[in-house]
Batch of 3 targets.
Target 1
Amino acid sequence: MKALIISSMIVLGGVSLLINCSDVDFKPLPSQACVNFNSQDGSNCTVEAGGLNDFTYSADTCKTDILFVVDNSGSMSTEQQRMAQSFPNFLGSIDDMDYQIAVTTTDTINDNGRLLPFGNGSKFIDKGTSNSVSLFENNIRRSETIACDNGDSAACASNDERGIFAANLAIMQARTRGNLNTFFRSEAHLAVIFLSDEDVRGNGGRDGKFLLTELDKPDSLVSNVTSHLGTHKTLSAHPIVVTSNSCQTVQLAQIPNRTTFASNDISGLTYLEFLTDSSLRASGTLTNATAGNICASNYTSELNGIATGIEIASRSTPLACNPRNLQVVYNGSILNQSNYSISATNVLSLVNINNCGQLDINYQCGL
């Protein structure tokens, strides 16, 4: 009986071995980057017979969504007025772009990162909006700030200024608030302009009292753009903040009981990490960052520099890898390598091309 059992086991094992060794048509699986790519509008990724992932992507280089995050706490009415006065020149600088502009505030208690409606009822204005200058002025100049600066303490917004947190909330809740594919367009570059006379949470958490949460930090904004708006979405960040000792002195003079503030408390160091922390560009999402001086007598120069940064960033796109067999087509013409560059973080940027147009990219990545 034992011999029979052993013999049967050998036979069964042999059958099993034959089955396991039979020919099977294995197909290469797409990489996670390929899977993510296919979930986005205007994107396609397929797996070639040799296992290479083939990426195809199209974009309009002129589409840009611009989010202003304005500090609406007390002492900011002058800066809001300067922004409103410089806005017409800013529009002139981006006139060749297909732009949309929205506004939220650093007050995450009352406004919670919501896009604040303009006087015409819309959450954003664009190139075709009538009276866009006056609409922007009436939205960026916050009534609560003006009332607070005039002595109405009951009208004051929260003085816990959390601009990065507010931008994160706007992005993370874009779908539930009806702002995804309306203001936040999948194929458009996103530029965030911060205007604040203090650092995040007043002093960037440097006093140990008002500590920064993850959503108060620049790296969270970069990662949330990718996870909520798409892996080939690009971001540029443009803080207009305290950038010098002389500006600190001016701003400190506006703060009651200012002796409780250390000299570097209000310097916009957390916002400036968008410029100074090179690791934020590793993913290829953050493609440009410029800073402005909030103490400038007007913001024309600041906004002109930001406009230039936005135009450069809007003509850049992250690639999923160091590409093979790359083909770049712009307005129907194949570009040679003198017309584009690829950074160490695999961001493709157009070079010496200043007109708007359709960008079509095809390339391959190994598994």
Target 2
Amino acid sequence: MGNCTTCWFVGVTALLCFASPSGMAQLLAQQRVSRLEDPTVRALPANVARTSDIPYAGNENPRQTLDLLVPAKRTNAPLPVIVFIHGGAWQSGDKSAGLQDAIPFVASGHYAAALVGYRLSDEGKWPNQIHDCKAAIRWIRANAARYALDGNRIGVLGASAGGHLAAVLGTSGEVLSMDGTLGAHGDVSSRVSCVVDLFGPTDFLRMNDTAIPEATLDHDAPQSPESQLIGGPIQEKPDIVATANPINYCSSDDPPILIVHGTRDPLVPFNQSELLHQAMKKAGVSSTLVTIEGAGHGSGFGPDVAKLVERFFEHHLRGEVTIWEDLTLKADIPEPQ
């Protein structure tokens, strides 16, 4: 499936910048570089075609666009779509972060992929981010025939903040307050077929409670990523926080979910994934939790994780059946020299 650590590393870098104002400034400066100078825009294999910056919300906001990747040579058979949602603490990042992970799926000839951008928390507060993601799903489904996509087979993958948005996409299928009214396809469903949530937060109010001892991020602080997303200190706005919790929307008709998290994650406590997994199982949803013993915030995720993600999409988007059970893997950490 390729090197899945690419998009995870981008998410980790963006999150770590909160500890350093100069680091954040440097990151934002890098993001202002013209897309024409971005090597990821050009570095496509010959068998992958990319249509960039498609507006899905009916406006000219560059954040509310998606890139569509399809096999360059293909039949007219509709392809399932994997949607990639970038991380960055809802404060940074770009849709191109998922490009290198999307390419192997598309190059296989079995999938199309969509790289989705969304408004960051400095531009709009919750629930703007999920409204954007759902508008993107509606656009994909509404334009499925035009691009020979299968609108009934849409999977989603996100890491960190992107994992949170992917989880909310999965559990809030027909929740009108989460759907929003963006775009020209309000009558089209925003449901998805399956979700991969890579170490995304879920219950913001409980993040500090189970943080590992060496964690330095105070999630309750006014400047925390979660508080910036919500629009104020999270403990002072529990009603709004509740609307951002995918657990609160769990129901028996939710799509299958694969959750992957490291036990030594210093930014998003491992228990956040445990809480979601327990709620999904209680609702009768197919949920698989992959525990990476000793792994951090995407660091220490070995090739077995990439293979599991590939098999998950093969199962739920292409019908290649795998038996799913909770699994614990050891972190892939190189031995010190």
Target 3
Amino acid sequence: MKRGVLFILLFFLLGMIMVSVVCAGKTYLTEDLGRNALAKKEAEGWKVYTVEIKLENDWAKLPALTAGETTSLTGRSYYYMEHLMTNTAQDGACPEEIVYLEIYRDDELYHRYEGKCDISGDIKFDLGFAEPGYYGYKIYTAWQMENDEIPEGPTQFFVRPATSEGEDSKSWIVVDFAHTPSKPEPGEAVIFTDRSNYRMVKVASWHWDFGDGANSTERDCEHTYNSEGTYTVVLTLETDEGESYAESKEITVQISPESISTEDSPATGLFLSLFAMGLVYLIMRGR
């Protein structure tokens, strides 16, 4: 009986100590660690929550990049981990971490680059874009790829047309649009959004040709395709000076495999019928 009471008291005191440690506040440490050092820390009871890239000049936050010019995407690696038993957290740079940069055009992978952080944990990609328009990027580390932590969707940014020296005030227009969902099914409403970008230009009208005989003059619109197939969608913008600019993209409409019901399969119906007949036979035989 006394041993049981002592055990309960000891357990209670241990719990109070752990609560006091947690309530005392978390201890924060900072140190640059490479992947091998992080692996050793994990063996000591630390949990690594992320190894990612924090950008210094995010293309998406810049006014616009210029076609034909080289631009840099720079950032620094960053890790964060915790030791739950000691209520300690630690972060810092991750030197020599492998980094991947994916460039997208029209939501399709355009190019994939691989780089490596320097001994300070910094990374830099120098790229140029020949054509103006909307692009997207994903940047992630090898740790994120190994732990299924790759960002879901690309971050959008815009590349404006190149202008000659002394022509900063020259007007330009880049026609572009997007549609949701990216892979519609017959009978499903598709939302078309104008993403055109222009300078010193006034757009007077929009005209959509959906490729199936239907059209619209709204800036953003909705359309439903009744049949499967690949359709060429054309968006034409006309300025107040009567000049027209157009962009075309293909959209594929098809029934997804998930939408095909197995109940419509003759083979499935035959199997269920035979199974039911066999089950009835076994029941009757058991009587």
